[in-house]
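Hi support team,

I submitted a single chain yesterday and got back a structure, but I'm not sure I'm reading the token output correctly. Could someone confirm the output below corresponds to the sequence I sent? I've pasted both exactly as they appear in my results page.

Thanks,
R.
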Amino acid sequence: MIGTIAEIGIFAAFSRWKARLKTVETLQLSERQPRAIPILDDKIKAMAGSPTKFQRENATRVVKLVQFISGTKAFEYAVQGAMNPKSKIRAKKRRILEVSTYL
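Hi R., thanks for writing in. Yes, this is the structure output for that exact sequence:
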């Protein structure tokens, strides 16, 4: 009987550990590495020149922010709204552009 209780405790601890590992793995998958396109990468790298350390760090931060934002459902909905001529998002964008032309 005591052995059975100990086994249940070990099984429960193992299950919690396994669930935690799955959560960590899911979070790590969301930080996907960008896909490399060698020809395009080399061409753009040559065109970009030699940025300073500060410029490289800032570019990395901007890229991470864009990747984070573009990985959300809200971004997907915003893009869909921008493409739909009947959406409120597109109407607001049009009004903002009209106001900015008068400034």
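A quick pointer for reading it: The mean pLDDT is 77. Let us know if anything else looks off.

Best,
Support desk
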